[in-house]
Design brief:
Length: 285
């Protein structure tokens, strides 16, 4: 099958401001892609364009549909969790389940009930008496129970406690994902998603600055703890970033063979958070 999302020269302007700046990318099926970037870098705008929620410039194809003109057909195959979960205040948990069961042919009621069994939500509870996190829990249970080909999650765990966040990502991987599905996820809590991602896309000032598979991350990038007497030799290999930890320099290298780096100190794979910070340096300058 062709790419699940294919973007060519995608741009989004709000008046004169450029939110997404002429980006091109392809996301195949069976991937879990982390779209990671600082505040205001264009993540939500990119996702909204892909879902046909805002006008944009350039070419976009999502599951073979044109989001500009085929939004209704696209929505049959896509599930979307916005970073602001809004549900009517008067809605009861049980009514929400009945509603989604009535409108969506691929909604699995049993699955939704199973997710809800791990929360404090009960069928008679109204949205207005829920905490912020409980509203998100209800929203996630409803959406995760829909068997969609593409799941777009924009900051899905905002307001959720750490126990539920971990459980959510576990469910996503074990219960939801398979090789026919594709998940695109934005979050600022990269360390919580890095174990489930297959691919990384870093976005900065509306441009994609890094697009790699997690396997490539392991192959390309190495972090080395360099003692003082080896700092000059290490600097000669042009680290892309360095910081100081307990008097030692921690240097990050791109594309330098690991065998060569092992002579300079202890090596390890960088975390996505370290890679992100190194790539984004100067973002707030
Ligand atoms: N409705 C809008 N009207 C005008 N400007 C907007 C609008 N929505 C977003 N922007 C601007 O577009 C840029 C990108 O915003 P976007 O919401 O896509 O960023 P983001 O990466 O999702 O940020 P965050 O991590 O803070 O959610 C920002 O400069 C923002 O101010």
């Amino acid at each position: 099958m062709s790419a699940v999302i294919s973007a060519r020269g995608l741009s989004k302007h709000y008046g004169k401001a450029v939110a997404v700046d002429n980006i091109s990318f392809e996301i195949p099926a069976g991937r879990i892609v982390g779209l990671i970037g600082p505040n205001g870098s264009g993540k939500t705008s990119t996702l909204k364009a892909a879902l046909g929620l805002i006008p944009f410039d350039g070419e976009l194809s999502v599951l073979g549909f044109d989001p500009r003109t085929q939004r209704d057909a696209l929505m049959q195959e896509v599930c979307f969790i916005a970073d602001v979960a809004i549900l009517p205040r008067w809605l009861k948990v049980g009514d929400a389940i009945d509603f989604v069961a009535g409108v969506h042919p691929r909604f699995d009621r049993k699955k939704a009930e199973r997710y809800l069994a791990n929360t404090k939500l009960s069928p008679g509870m109204m949205v207005k008496s829920m905490s912020k996190g409980m509203v998100v829990q209800l929203h996630l249970a409803l959406v995760m129970a829909i068997d969609a080909k593409l799941l777009v999650l924009d900051e899905p765990t905002l307001g959720l406690d750490i126990i539920y966040r971990k459980q959510f990502y576990q469910n996503l991987l074990e219960d939801y994902f398979d090789e026919k599905k594709t998940i695109v996820i934005t979050t600022h809590q990269v360390e919580e998603v890095e174990h489930i991602l297959t691919d990384l896309m870093f976005i900065r000032d509306g441009k994609i600055v890094l697009s790699v598979s997690m396997d490539e991350v392991g192959e390309r990038y190495t972090e080395v703890m360099v003692p003082a007497d080896k700092v000059n030799a290490a600097n000669a290999l042009q680290p892309i970033d360095q910081r100081s930890v307990f008097g030692k320099s921690v240097m990050l290298f791109d594309g330098v063979p690991r065998a060569q780096l092992e002579a300079l100190g202890e090596t390890r794979n960088p975390s996505v958070a370290d890679l992100f910070v190194a790539t984004m340096k100067g973002s707030y300058a």
